[in-house]
């Protein structure tokens, strides 16, 4: 594969994000990746972890040089206040948002081939007075993308979400024919283009228990979900459903599917995380660039201890590279 330049945001400075990029930097990578973060923080954390780290100056106009183990290119973003492992500080919320904004700009202007994001702490960002519901929504806003789809994937299972970070009481009203049409189209197109799947199959979960039991337990399936599926089927898309969620994630059903569409966050993601926690990746579909992320949080209690597991971060990089290759094959 032609070398690619990946942007990696190091995430919440008090969490394990800085640890993970330092641990990953101890390996050989066939591509150039650029860490966005505070160089002093990364050097300090490397000393805590007792790992060698040589920080190289990143220049956008320089050739895509590959680092040796123990080296990383850093695009410097300055902390607002010094950060200590495991200790949140609302003053650094702007730092986190600046990293994501700069990385998005770099992807939009083709400086970077893809974006991999480290874990952030939503609570401390909101505590600082910044409205933040998640990476997915922020990246859509920064890239002026009308609709994106959150997908989590682990070997053997991909789960896309019709709605993301909403209170459960708001989910039913958010599920409209227009939303589902956009989400199903984006997901289906991504399976074809970003995952190089010919004639993919997408299985759709119902909203209500037992998919509404023919209207006796809710009519969303009859009035909203199923008509959208039927329309897309007439356009040649292999989209099936809607199925009761309690029996959808069974081996027989999963064997048919290239992805599952769940109606809300906690309908589909507990199954996926039970199946592949620590070896799963969060993918934002519909953006004008590839974005993947870890499937876990900031793990403040592990920051600076050397006990953080790099598996999900490693898989996020791997999936981003696979998606880049799939896109190249399609062009």
Structure notes:
This protein is of the alpha/beta class. 39% of the residues lie in helices and 18% in strands. The chain has helices spanning 17-24, 39-49, 93-108, 122-127, 135-142, 168-174, 177-193, 220-234, 245-248, 251-256, 265-276, 311-330, and strands at residues 5-9, 32-37, 54-57, 71-76, 114-117, 149-154, 157-161, 201-205, 238-243, 259-262, 281-285, 290-294. A hairpin with a 4-residue loop joins strand 11 and strand 12 (290-294). Helix 7 crosses helix 8 (220-234).
- The fraction of residues assigned to DSSP E strands is 15-25%
**How many individual helices?**
12
Helix content: 25-40%
Radius of gyration: 20 Å
The general outline is: globular
Low-pLDDT segments, ≥5 res: none
């Amino acid at each position: 594969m032609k070398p690619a330049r990946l942007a990696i945001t190091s995430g919440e400075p008090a969490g394990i994000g800085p640890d993970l990029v330092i641990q990953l930097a101890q390996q050989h990578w066939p591509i150039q990746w650029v860490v966005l973060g505070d160089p002093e923080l990364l050097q300090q954390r490397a000393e805590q972890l007792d790992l060698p780290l040589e920080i190289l100056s990143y220049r956008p106009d320089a050739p895509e040089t590959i680092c040796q183990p123990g080296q990383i290119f850093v695009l410097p973003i300055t902390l607002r206040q010094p950060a200590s492992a495991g200790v949140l500080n609302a003053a650094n919320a702007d730092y986190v948002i600046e990293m994501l904004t700069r990385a998005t700009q770099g992807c939009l202007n083709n400086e970077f081939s893809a974006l991999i994001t480290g874990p952030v702490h939503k609570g401390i960002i909101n505590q600082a007075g910044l409205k933040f519901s998640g990476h997915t929504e922020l990246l859509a806003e920064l890239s002026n993308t009308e609709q994106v789809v959150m997908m989590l994937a682990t070997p053997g299972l991909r789960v896309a979400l019709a709605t993301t970070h909403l209170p459960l009481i708001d989910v039913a009203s958010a599920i409209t024919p227009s939303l589902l049409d956009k989400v199903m189209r984006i997901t289906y197109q991504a399976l074809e283009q970003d995952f190089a799947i010919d004639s993919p199959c997408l299985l759709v979960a119902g909203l209500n228990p037992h998919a509404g039991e023919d209207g006796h337990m809710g009519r969303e399936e009859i009035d909203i979900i199923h008509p959208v599926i039927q329309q897309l089927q007439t356009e040649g898309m292999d989209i099936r459903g809607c199925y009761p969620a309690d029996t959808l994630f069974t081996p027989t059903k999963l064997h048919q599917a290239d992805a599952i569409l769940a109606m809300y966050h906690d309908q589909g993601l507990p199954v996926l995380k039970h199946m592949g926690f620590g070896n799963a990746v969060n993918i934002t579909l519909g953006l004008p660039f590839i974005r993947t992320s870890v499937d876990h949080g900031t793990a403040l209690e592990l920051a600076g201890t050397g006990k953080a597991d790099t598996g999900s971060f490693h898989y996020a990089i791997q999936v981003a590279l696979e998606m880049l290759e799939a896109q190249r094959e399609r062009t």
